[in-house]
Amino acid sequence: MQGAHGASDDRLDLELWERRLAELGQAVCAALRARNVDLERDSRVLRDDDGDSIFAIDVDAEELVLQHAEVWAQSGAFELICEGLEPAGNRSFGEGPSLARVILDPIDGTRGLMFDKRSAWFLGAVAPDRGPTTSLQDIEVAVMVELPTSRQASSDLLVAQRGGGARGVRRDLRTGEELSFIPRPSRATELRHGFATVCNFFQGGKELTSRLDEELMRRALGGWTVGKAEVYTDQYISSGGQLAEVALGRDRFVLDARPLIHRALGHDDTLCSRPYDLCTAMVATEAGCVVTDPWLRPLDAPLDTTTNVGFAAFANRELYAALGPLVLEALQTCGLGHGAPGGR
User: Fold this and answer.
1) 78 — phi, psi (to 5°)?
2) Sheet holding 166-172, edge to edge
């Protein structure tokens, strides 16, 4: 098997890493389910890292990550990239040359989960270790585990290996019963009567983002039909969760142009999606979706905790072909420029 940069991956055991990531994700899910939900405790900011604020609920998951990593290290060296690790979100495990780079977001969607509003996701992916140049394009296995609220009774596991398609398992958290399924993205070729979102989560850039949203919808729908709600938005504060929604057929399109929006406003060092938030994009692409940077180029970024990354996700290739040119036109009309490769 050859990676995106051409080097051989023969020594990387993808089945082993898939099992490891799934077990860790399920352990994080179980630990969160077992805790006593305390909105005030879980939402306390304990520290601010280069990646994002670290909340009390994040730290609980960090401990599990380190425990599992120490066990994995007994059978081979690897580099772990994870928000909250010191120094700079990167740590070496094991003896000898590293064969793999493992990138994790133990809880993607912390803000929704810590207030018990909506599921977060455990995200994990593995690439052959090509040193600091290892990127999202090198990832060969990706695993997502849903981290549900205290009111939910099931959790989805989504997995993909490059070229092998995407698979899912829905687990009943009360009985342990599991039901296998294949993720099925929407086959719709337009946005009308479906969910399509331009991300606009936080203060800063909301006015320009809304202008971009309106410009894109005007082009996609031919104008506003007064008195009708034709396209719906879902501001799900979880990049992994948004990609899961597209892969599972619930959303048709997501555009996260925050790096471009913030740069247009004169700010480069802002909070946007990071590589660990998008490390499982391969689950969506292996399910049949198209995931690119905002300018429809291959989604790429180094495996780190600090690079800002924008993305566009389309449910299928036909929708990508129809909507993609309109995305480019809307970005140009709003004066957002081309940015750097990968949306960085």
Assistant:
1) -160, 165
2) 90-93, 78-82, 100-108, 120-128, 141-147, 154-161, 166-172, 178-181
Residue with tokens 């803000």: 111
Angle at 320 between CA 167 and CA 136, to 5 degrees: 55
Where is 193: in which H helix or E strand? none
Q: Tell me 192's DSSP state.
A: T
Q: Are 147 and 29 in contact (CB under 8 A)?
A: yes
Q: Give pairs for 63-72: CB < 8 Å, separation 24+.
A: 64/24, 64/27, 64/28, 64/31, 64/106, 65/24, 65/28, 65/104, 65/106, 68/20, 68/23, 68/24, 68/27, 69/93, 69/102, 72/20
Predicted structure pTM score: 0.90
Q: Which two tokens mark 40?
A: 């005030």
Neighbours of 338 (CB within 10 A): 12
Query: pLDDT tens digit string along 74-92?
Result: 999 999 999 877 666 889 9
Helix (H) or strand (E) holding 304: none
Write out residues in the chain with pLDDT < 50, as ranges: 1-9, 51, 339-344
Buried (b) or exposed (e) across 240-267, using 16+ Cβ within 10 A? Answer: bbbbbbbbbbbbbbbbbbbbbbbbbeee
Residue 49: CA atoms inside 13 Å, Cβ hemisphere, count? 21
